[in-house]
Amino acid sequence: MINFQYARANDVADAVRQIAADPTAKFIAGGTNLIDLMKEDVERPTRLIDITRLPLKSVEETAEGGLRIGALVPNSDLAYHPLIEQRYPLLASAILAGASAQLRNMASTGGNLLQRTRCYYFYDTATPCNKREPGSGCSAIAGLNRMHAILGTSEACIATHPSDMCVALAALDATVHLAGLAGARTIAFSDFHRLPEDTPQRDTNLQSNEIITAVELPARGFAANYTYLKIRDRLSYAFALVSVAAALELEGDAIKEARLALGGVAHKPWRDLSAEAALRGQAASQAAFARAADLLLRDAKGFEHNAFKIDLARRAIVRALTQAAAGTPQSQSNKKIR
Ligand SMILES: Cc1cc2nc3c(=O)[nH]c(=O)nc-3n(C[C@H](O)[C@H](O)[C@H](O)COP(=O)(O)OP(=O)(O)OC[C@H]3O[C@@H](n4cnc5c(N)ncnc54)[C@H](O)[C@@H]3O)c2cc1C
Ligand code: SF4
Fold first, then answer.
1. Mutation test of ligand 1: which of 12, 33, 46 has the most ligand atoms closer than 8 Å to its C-beta?
2. Residue 26: CB partners within 8 Å, gap ≥ 6?
3. What's residue 335's pLDDT?
4. β-strand 47-50 against 270-271: which pairing, if any?
5. What local confidence, expressed as pLDDT, does residue 333 receive?
6. How many degrees, rounded to 5, is the angle at CA 48 between CA 43 and CA 52?
7. For ligand 2, what atom is nearest to the CA of residue 149?
8. Are 320 and 244 in contact (CB under 8 A)?
9. Pocket of ligand 1 (CB under 6 A)
10. Which DSSP symbol is given to 105?
11. Contact call for residues 184 and 227 (beta carbons, < 8 A)
């Protein structure tokens, strides 16, 4: 039996005060990741700060024409929110490609950003893992690494970030709103998650005294031409081997704006601005899509069991962009299943 204390936060300032006062405390929202990690003895918070009663559950329109999503909006509510379905269907599609209906009902927006890797060794406390225990070594580099990263890896860690929702948020250029002891601040979505480098224990740039209060979407939603394509071992209830969030704005056949982000390939949702730039101004064609894929994957490096991901990612990018250009999004099969 491992004891821990439980406390409720009354408001955001109280949540910040409580987390700042105890470095071994953790916030709990839906609990769908944290509780599993506690059961597996991977996380051992001495205190859980329940934030589920904070007023962070609404989706509001911003003055700039975008949306501000409270950190406690459940994944299901977000995916089926009329403004998300109409204006940001890429995000709805990505959320519905993840987990199961029951999990999505519990999982929160903030918690989804902070879910931890699904590397088997991270969960197995009998094996060395630099993310779980810095300096102990990485069991995956010479071990079973089929699910692992092909981009942005380091000698310390080759884990991937498991979220689907975050891949769409990266492509949509979201912003994360935080509150901490020093006040409120925002951080671009692409700067929120980190690459492993030599500190794989740090997944994000969130400070220890900060809470996520919201995620903001800019006005541009790419509602006409988008696809979230998730390739996985089973059609449901499995994490991505490779996923692609593709979004285009077309003028006739020409690409006016392009967004491309990948999941399942790196320690963070992988977005490459040069691949997007290479698409702008081009005719929407297989050749242009293949060039963008090659550019995005130019530094990809496979390990013993995951080298197949490089070709898989290349093909998935071309297929996702082709579907986006045709206006036929892929992940519609989950629609209206709660
Ligand atoms: C079997 C299974 C399958 C899954 N499949 C998928 C999948 O295919 N795709 C996918 O994307 N996800 C998948 N998930 C993950 C799921 O989406 C996450 O567990 C969920 O989004 C986490 O949200 P939560 O609110 O439950 O977080 P919690 O478990 O409550 O918290 C997770 C972490 O976030 C911190 N936290 C939570 N909210 C805040 C906040 N506002 N500010 C600061 N810190 C905070 C907590 O302290 C904790 O460290 C799966 C999960 C399970 C169990
Ligand atoms: S890949 Fe990262 S999470 Fe997995 S064993 Fe290595 S250090 Fe740990």
1. 33
2. 34, 43, 45, 47, 48, 49
3. 42
4. unpaired
5. 44
6. 120
7. 1
8. yes
9. 26-34, 36, 51, 71, 98-99, 103, 106-108, 110-112, 114-115, 162-165, 211-212, 239
10. H
11. no
